[in-house]
Structures are given as C-alpha cells and as structure tokens.
Amino acid sequence: MSLSRPPLSDYSRRTPELLLPAVLGGIVLLYFAIPFVAFLARTGMSNIVAGLSTPEAQVAIRNSLLTAPVSTAIATVFGVPLAYVLARTSFVGKRLVEALVILPLIVPPVVGGAMLLTAVGRFTPIGAAAAAVGISLTDSLLGVVLAQTFVAAPFVIITARAGFGAIDERLEQASRSLGYGPLSTFWNVSLPLARGAIVAGIVLTFARAIGEFGATMMVAYNPRTMPTRLWVDFIAGGIDAIVPMGLALLGITLVVLAAVQRLGRVPTVVDE
Question: Is 125 helix (H, G, I), strand (E, B) or coil?
C-alpha cells in the first residue's frame, strides 16, 4: 500500500503556524553563524602557515594530539562498561552514579580543574605519593590527560548508554538462551548493536578533550596544549594572533561534525 503525499493545501495551512517558530529559530541560527563568519573573515589578515609553524605552536599541537587520544581511550575503556550497567540494571545509588556522570558537564571547567587539584595536587596524599615515585600528576602531560578525561568522559558514557538503552533486551535474552554468557552477549550482541552511538560518543569525547581549556589550565598550564597556547597568544598579541591556532581547532571541530553526521544521529538518553 502506497502512502499518498498530503495535498499542497495542507502545507499552505501550516505555513502561518510555523512562521513564528521559523523566525525565532532563524534568529538563533544567525547568532550561531555570525561568529564563525566573522572569525573566518579574519583569516586573510594572518599568515596561517607561519603561525602554525612556530616551535611553540608545533609543541602545542603535538601535545594535544598525544593527550587527546589517550584521554579518549581511557574514557572509552572505562566509560562504555559503565554505560551498559546504567542502561541495563537498577541498583541502590543509581541516581547518585548518574549525577556523578553528568557533574563534569555542568560544572564550569575551571571549577572542575580546581576539584582535580584538591584530589591529585602535589600536596595531596595522592599527588605526594605519585611524586615520591617520580610521577607528576600536575604540570605534565599526565596532568593534561587527567583534566581532559574528567571533562570529556561523560560524552561517551551518555551516548553509549543511550545506544544500549535502545537495544531490544529480547535479543540479549535470546543470546543467553543459546548458552552465551553475559560477557559473550555483551561483546557479540550488545556492543555491535550500539556501535553507532558508541563511536559517535568517542568522536565527541575526542573533540571535547582536544579543545579543553579551563580544567587543563588549572591542572597543567604547562606543557602547553592547543587551547592553552591559544590563550597565551591572545594575551600577547590579541585576536589576530590566535587565528592560526583557532583555525586549526575549528578544522578539527568540522572533521568531528562530519564524522558524527556520517555515523548518523546520536540517540537520546533512554531511561528504562
């Protein structure tokens, strides 16, 4: 049975109803677009290649490309199992766990960095113990990873949980009835079915990690990453000085956007 298209008169009747939402939505879209256009318009005033070829910029780019994948991997390895548990089980304290997952998203990054310092700073028991064996948890690449993971990990947890929650549990039950254990079912059934949401979450986590500034500035202002280098350049030379590094970060963002679009829509969180 074929579905006929609504008559054109239906669209014309709906047009007045959608006019106000369209205008309001257009205003916010314009608000989003103008800063991008204005920023890109300044690229002609800067030597992009020269700006990204300085030793300081090269070090910042290298540090970001080293730490962001590590942070993303840590968030994925530990976050995806947590997402599965949250999607499939109910337990005492679950709401508290959910709140802890969301907390890094709503806490200002600078405050998140301060919280990390109170936990792993050099004068804390954890920081002092690490320093005693020659490991610095602050002002180091490890500190950058800690800051990035703290603020970025919720993205993969939330999206993976949504992906697991969208799976029909009967498929997992069928796997169990065929003799597969919980781990085998998770690996062979649940994980492949939620793959799109998980990969989208990984991509978003990477984007958040590589662009993290506030928490990184608090925990590891040195060595420089791309965002902290951008801030130093802005203080020293104003807006034009940050165009090369800003354009590089914008390029990474556009690649992430294309990847997420390629993977499809990120599902919404599903509560059982």
Answer: helix
> Hey, what are 56's tokens?
């300081």
Q: What is the pLDDT of residues 84-107, one digit of tens each?
A: 999 988 889 899 999 999 999 999
Residue 35 lies in a domain: yes
**N- to C-terminal Cα distance for the chain?**
35
Sign of CA dihedral 80, 84, 86, 90: negative
CA 6 to chain centre: 40
Query: Residue 124 is encoded by which pair of tokens?
Result: 């804390």
| Cβ proximity of 234 and 213 under 8 Å | no
Domain count, the chain: 1
Quote the pTM value.
0.83
C-beta separation of 197 from 166 below 8 A: yes
The CA R_g of the chain, rounded to the nearest whole Å, is 23
Q: Tokens standing for 198?
A: 């998980």
Tokens, residue 13: 């009747």
In a domain, 4, yes or no: no
- Residue 110 falls inside a structural domain: yes
Give the C-alpha separation, 152 to 22, whole Å. Answer: 33
Using the structure block, give the residue that is written with the tokens 């109803």.
Answer: 17
Q: Which of 71, 73, 81 is nearest to 212 (CA)?
A: 71
**What is the span of the domain harbouring residue 245?**
23-264
